[in-house]
Amino acid sequence: MTGPGRLEGRIHQQIVQGRHGNVNLGAGFYIVRMAVTVCSIFLAPHKGGEMTQVQSVEAEIGKGLVGDRYYGSKHRHVTVQSVDALAEASEVFGSPIDAGLTRRNITVSVGPVPAQPGDRFTVGSVLLEVVRVAAPCSVMNAVFGDGASAALRRRAGSVCRVLNSGVIAVGDEVVFPPPVA
Question: Which H/E stretch holds residue 15?
Answer without folding.
Answer: helix 10-20
